[in-house]
Write a structure and sequence with these properties.
Length: about 300
């Protein structure tokens, strides 16, 4: 007997047996369909709720290579204080804060650090990062890439003067060159995204290429010259030594033809010290050239130096 005929016979036999019997029969035959429909409705409802209640982002901040004590801090507490200083209402907007990313001075040592490196560049290219603080070695690598904005476009002359001798300057010529390179990388990334709509053969080739790059990246990580049998190489040790407090020195703007302030040293900042961001290592902070929330970025940096939120 076909299933449809069996169901028809079952329905006939249920006539006059009451609601309970019909519910038991329905559950026996349609339980899994019912469960799937309910789960689907819950997932759709949850997605719709998330979209409807998603708050626009007011600022995105990364503190790279902070002290272990800072990395273990509760992000929400720090975020709330920074948001208050920047005049951000967290009931209406959101602030993204990352204090756990690490990249070893002298070169990423494993896949996690390589992922952190790629994440930062992706955020910059997508204009999703506003403030980046890092140890001196890594900060300077981003300076050379032209990632940081002229702080005179973010702070007033009076506000900049308040940072005293903690400003990090770079020669404008080198800054412009780095920004041109960064713009070229962003353009290339955009072109790759547009070409992603090609035929399946192209997509397959791209996937194969990505797999090859990933494998090569894994080999590079395994053979990273910054590490020798799990220990820091002399080059990496020299990089770590160069950024220690007392060893690292800020570039002297007097030696430059057209100095541009792009960073602020954080070691003397009251709240940077309270949060244990950078102690033995020189730490600097800057605002990204691609930031779309420079006012909030200025408020967050100002807070670290004892800004409005006390």
């Amino acid at each position: 007997m076909a299933l449809s005929d069996e169901i028809r016979e079952q329905r006939k036999s249920l006539k006059g047996k009451g609601l309970r019997a019909q519910l038991v029969w329905f559950w026996d035959y349609y339980r899994w369909q019912t469960v799937l429909v309910i789960l689907g409705a819950v997932m759709i409802g949850s997605t719709a709720y998330s979209i409807a209640t998603r708050k626009p982002e007011a600022a995105s901040v990364i503190f790279l290579n902070v002290e272990d004590e800072a990395a273990m801090m509760e992000n929400d507490a720090v975020t709330e204080r920074m948001a208050e200083a920047a005049g951000i209402d967290l009931s209406k907007e959101s602030v993204t804060l990352d204090m756990m990313s690490r990249i070893t001075p002298g070169g990423a040592r494993d896949q996690a650090e390589m992922a952190a490196q790629e994440k930062i560049f992706a955020y910059v290219a997508a204009k999703d990062l506003d403030v980046l603080a890092a140890d001196a070695y890594n900060f300077e690598s981003y300076v050379r890439a032209g990632a940081f904005a002229d702080l005179r476009t973010v702070f007033s002359e009076e506000e900049l003067a308040a940072f005293g001798s903690n400003l990090y300057y770079v020669e404008r010529a080198s800054l412009d060159g780095g920004q041109e390179e960064l713009a070229a990388e962003e353009s290339a990334a955009g072109s790759e995204a547009e070409s992603a709509g090609g035929d399946s053969t192209t997509e397959s080739a791209a996937e194969t290429g990505d797999a090859g790059e990933a494998a090569a990246a894994g080999e590079d990580a395994a053979e990273n010259p910054a590490y020798v049998f799990g220990a820091l190489s002399p080059e990496a040790e020299a990089a770590a030594e160069s950024e220690k407090v007392g060893v690292f020195e800020l570039p002297d703007p007097a030696d430059m033809e057209d100095p541009v302030p792009v960073g602020i040293m954080l070691n003397e900042a009251p709240y940077a010290d309270e949060f244990s961001l950078y102690r033995d290592t020189a730490g600097l902070v800057g605002v990204l050239t691609t930031s779309e929330h420079t006012a909030a970025a200025a408020g967050i940096i100002g807070f670290l130096w004892g800004g409005p939120a006390q």
